[in-house]
């Protein structure tokens, strides 16, 4: 098994590294990695429905989409991510317990009363410290999980705080859990580098033919290309979301402007008027102007600026209009 400790804290690089190792390598792999503050959504989720977009933008938290399904998780340098990539027989690849068991062994060796709960969680005293997900490609399975060691749980909570049912879709929804940090349950002082090394050494000592592997120049170049061309793009992070609709309400000086937008592959494909009659003109102008645009703040702000003279709104009305569409 190739044992890798990623030196990058870029979530896009590390997610790309997973896919690169998964699809381009034949050897089994174990990788440990950390990220700067980021929210990572599952492959089949509606990104906007899972994140507190205002808080995330204000605090410069990155948003990413991973290759596997499941729910949304929060990363920061106080969280360690572990990844197993192994080959096997089709139909027998998915096995969460197989990959969670060694992590439990390390935690038990530290006298942490951790256990596997439900389909994909590690909990300590009923509070979640790890969420896990898997993805299968041909005869390979990728299993990865988070380990909240010393994360900023208040930031985690705010980043994932959303208005329920704000978006109408058929996407996979996250199930929120009460969380805790592993560090709080240790009986001896331990830093995150030492904890990471305990995980790495356990794998090296207990898996046959394990050896340390470092990304070479070719590996790094291919991973960065994949990160730039896929994982860091709006098309993958937001545009890949399943189709959805969103009810928007904007308070204006002429009354409420109310409408529903329909989005497919990240593009606004239609609008439905729910406005009061005195805002019908504004709705028709708006509808004709933003249909076909990406459901993205940058393009919408630019378009509202372009049609500002046609909308009989105050400056405050115009500023509020884009905010209402997220």
Can you give the mean pLDDT?
A: 95
Structural class estimated from helices and strands: alpha+beta
The total count of strands amounts to 15
What's the main sheet like? 8 strands, mixed
CATH topology of the largest domain: BirA Bifunctional Protein, domain 2
| CATH architecture verdict of the largest domain | 2-Layer Sandwich
User: What's the helix count?
Assistant: 11
The portion of residues assigned to helices is 25-40%
Number of structural units classed as domains? 2
Strand order of the largest sheet: 7-8-9-10-6-2-1-12
Q: State the separation between the terminal residues, measured CA to CA.
A: 45 Å
Shape: elongated
Describe the structure.
With 326 residues, this protein is of the alpha+beta class. It folds into two domains: 2-237, BirA Bifunctional Protein, domain 2, CATH 3.30.930.10; 244-323, CO dehydrogenase flavoprotein, C-terminal domain (Enolase-like, domain 1, 2-Layer Sandwich). 33% of the residues lie in helices and 27% in strands. It has helices spanning 11-24, 47-50, 53-58, 96-109, 153-159, 192-206, 217-231, 234-237, 280-290, 297-306, 315-323, and strands at 2-5, 29-33, 38-41, 62-65, 73-75, 79-87, 114-117, 121-124, 127-137, 140-148, 167-169, 211-212, 244-252, 255-264, 267-273. α1 packs across α7 and α10 (297-306) runs antiparallel to α11 (315-323).
């Amino acid at each position: 098994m190739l044992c890798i400790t990623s030196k990058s804290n870029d979530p896009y690089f590390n997610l790309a590294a997973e896919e690169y190792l998964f699809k381009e390598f034949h050897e089994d792999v174990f990788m440990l990695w950390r990220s700067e503050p980021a929210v990572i959504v599952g492959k089949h989720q509606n990104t906007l429905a899972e994140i507190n977009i205002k808080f995330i933008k204000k605090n410069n938290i990155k948003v990413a989409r991973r290759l596997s399904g499941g729910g949304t998780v929060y990363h920061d340098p106080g969280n360690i991510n572990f990844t197993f990539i192994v080959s096997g027989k089709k139909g027998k690849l998915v096995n969460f317990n197989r990959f969670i068991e060694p992590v439990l062994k390390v935690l038990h060796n530290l006298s942490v009363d951790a256990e596997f709960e439900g389909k994909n969680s590690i909990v300590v005293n009923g509070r979640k410290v790890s969420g896990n997900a898997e993805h299968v490609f041909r005869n390979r399975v990728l299993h990865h999980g988070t380990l909240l060691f010393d994360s900023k749980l208040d930031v985690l909570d705010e980043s994932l705080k959303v208005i329920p049912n704000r978006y109408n879709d058929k996407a996979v929804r996250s199930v929120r859990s009460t969380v805790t940090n592993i560090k709080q349950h240790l009986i001896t002082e331990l830093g995150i580098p030492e904890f990471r090394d305990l995980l790495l050494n356990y794998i090296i000592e207990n898996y046959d033919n394990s050896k340390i592997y470092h990304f070479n120049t070719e590996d790094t170049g291919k991973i960065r290309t994949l990160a730039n061309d896929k994982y860091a793009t709006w098309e993958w992070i937001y545009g890949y979301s399943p189709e959805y609709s969103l009810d928007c309400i904007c308070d204006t000086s002429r009354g409420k402007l109310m409408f529903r937008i329909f989005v497919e592959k990240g593009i606004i494909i239609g609008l439905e008027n729910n406005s009061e009659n005195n805002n019908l003109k504004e709705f028709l102008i708006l509808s004709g102007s933003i249909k076909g645009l990406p459901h993205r703040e940058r393009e919408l702000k630019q378009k509202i600026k372009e049609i500002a003279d046609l909308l009989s709104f105050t400056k405050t009305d115009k500023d509020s209009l884009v905010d209402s569409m997220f």
